[in-house]
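Re: beginner question about structure tokens

> Can someone show what the tokenized structure looks like for a real chain? I only ever see the sequence side.

Sure, here's an example I had lying around. Input first:
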Amino acid sequence: MPEKVKIAMKITSKGNSGEDSGRKKESWKESFHLFREYVNNHEQHVGINMDDKGHSFGVSDKAVRRQKLLEQSIQSAQEIEKSLQLIQESLSSIDKQLAAYIADKVDAAQMPQEAQKIQSDLTSHEISLEEMKKHYQGKETAQRVLSQIEVAQKKMQDVSMKFRLFQKPANFEQRLQESKMILDEVKMHLPALETKSVEQEVVQSQLNHCVNLYKSLSEVKSEVEMVIKTGRQIVQKKQTENPKELDERVTALKLHYNELGAKVTERKQQLEKCLKLSRKMRKEMNALTEWLAATDLELTKRSAVEGMPSNLDSEVAWGKATQKETEKQKVHLKSITELGEALKTVLGKKETLVEDKLSLLNSNWIAVTSRAEEWLNLLLEYQKHMETFDQNVDHITKWIIQADALLDESEKKKPQQKEDMLKRLKAELNDIRPKVDSTRDQAANLMANRGDHCRKVIEPKISELNHRFAAISHRIKTGKASIPLKELEQFNSDIQKLLEPLEAEIQQGVNLKEEDFNKDMSEDNEGTVKELLQRGDNLQQRITDERKREEIKIKQQLLQTKHNALKDLRSQRRKKALEISHQWYQYKRQADDLLKCLDDIEKKLASLPEPRDERKIKEIDRELQKKKEELNAVHRQAEGLSEDGAAMAVESTQIQLSKRWREIEKSVMVMTEDMPLEISYVPSTYLTEITHVLQALSEVEQLLSAPDLCAKDFQDLFKQEESLKNIKDNLQQISGRIDVIHNKKAAALQSTTPPEKARLQEALSRLDFQWERVNKMYKDRQGQFDRSVEKWRRFHYDMKIFNQWLTEAEHFLKKTQIPENWEHAKYKWYLKDESLDITGLSDELQSVIES
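And the corresponding structure tokens:
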């Protein structure tokens, strides 16, 4: 029995072996044959000894049952072996397949059907192994089977691990690294956002950079969130070999993104606020700096004069206006300071960037406003001194005028009354002398310390005061009368008579007249001018009335100025006449020759017998047409001389030539009108006549476009009038010729060929068009001339009114010079009212002068 058990155990052991299937089958067969041999031998042994042992049949039944059990065990073991083998092969195949997928970075999402199949196979295998394990659990004879099942389950775990790796997205690591790289790049640019300047351009550049980083974080946000979510799922599903490490990396990515987002957002808000404040502060600072610079430049310009400025009132007004503007600009300075403090709060530790700008601005403010204040104070002080000086001079001058008037009145009184008046004035003279000395000292101090302009202002006043005071002092001491009024009036009359011809010749300017080529422009009035100037000097020495002395001085200066201007103009005209003398004499000779020819033609016309010889008339007409080119040449020479400044010189000759030409041409035309139409008006002759009229119209058009008629409205009105008159006469003559052409039209067209007829009709159309255009030009020029003449007439009328006003104003001004006159205030008010009335007239005169 023990041997039978050993054989059975051996069979079982063979069945539970984990060796390869070939060896297992051979082992199973060998064990089974041994067992069968043992059973057969045992049955024989039992049959032989059946009689000896009463229970032989019972043992035989047990052996048969045992055999059946063994056979079932063998069959079961074979089936298990086969199942395990299939599972092992399937796992190996899946393992290789997953390894290939993982190596090729292919994930389950890319092959959903294959992944589902693998998932199903693994699930089936796992269930099978669990059921096998439960079936053999606790059986002593199944240790080997259990061991094989555990091996298969371990393999199953490895393959399941690979499957989880296969389920993990293949590009997860790449996406994780790319997200981290983007965040690292953003972090690398963070130092560039640190405040380096408050200049608008720099802050704007930093803000743009910050916005770009902000956009980068916004763009990568969804990717980071997806990577974090995917990472959490991978960790949760254990689709990685090291879940803890992956969890830490994902967490670090999230913290990194949140930290960068907070920093970029905060810096963006700071930069936006900084830019807003910087922009506003810069605008305010630029405006204030420009005002300071402009004020400083103007102040430097105004204070650069040596001494005191020429226009004191204007300078004081500017200084006060600048002072008011400074008060207004203080508001801007305060606003800038407040903006700077707000900006320093935003900048934090970088507040020195703003402090430097504010400090520089404050320095400029103090420097400019202090200078402006000092300049204004200096001007006000100077103004005060000048007002005091003027008051002193006015006080002394009034006394001198009163004293002079009293002396004039004393000449008409009795000797005793005159003596009493002189005593009184001598006492007053002694009383006012200290005032005069004090005023002289004040003037000397001002001239010494306040510059050249102050000297120019003070010196004439103090000189005049000294002269008048010396004169009145001498007159009071001596009691002599003033110069007779008739002598002064005669001087004024003589000097005015000389000024008028001088002014007339000056008005000629450098324009040459014909006389300038024929005479030597000598200084024929030099002696008269010198004599009048000497008489004026003598009168000034003898007159005590400063107002009269000033009038004489002004007229002397005017005479001297006009005389010098005329000498200069004469010199220029003499030089210009010498330069163009050759052209002038050539023009004059040709013009005289042409006038002589016109006289000859006129004599021929007058000597024609009755009835007139048509052949001779045509000869005269042809001769006149030949002279047309000479006339044009003379006109061109005249235009050249006019451009060189001799317009006035050629004007009379041109007028004479044009007038003579029109008269003769008109006479010839009258004679040709009576000639029969059939004589010579063949098409070619008719076309030539039209061409001549077209040429005449072109010449008139040139005259209408000449510089004389295109000048300013009031320039050379007389010359414009002569030109327009000449053009009108030409147009009247041409009108008659055009009427003749139209009268001959039917006869001329009857004898033409079709081509000749087309040319004639085209020439006639051109003639009509040019005739209308030239007439329109003439009407426009004539209308413009008429309007200018009307304006000029009104101008002369207004000038007459203006001169009358000036005369009346001068009369009343003389009366206002006498303070004792009870109508003094009334005269002043009258002059004030009249000056307001004359303002409009003055403006109108100015507009005419400018035109």
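Each token stands for a local structural state, so reading them left to right follows the chain. The CA atoms of residues 678 and 747 lie 8 Å apart.
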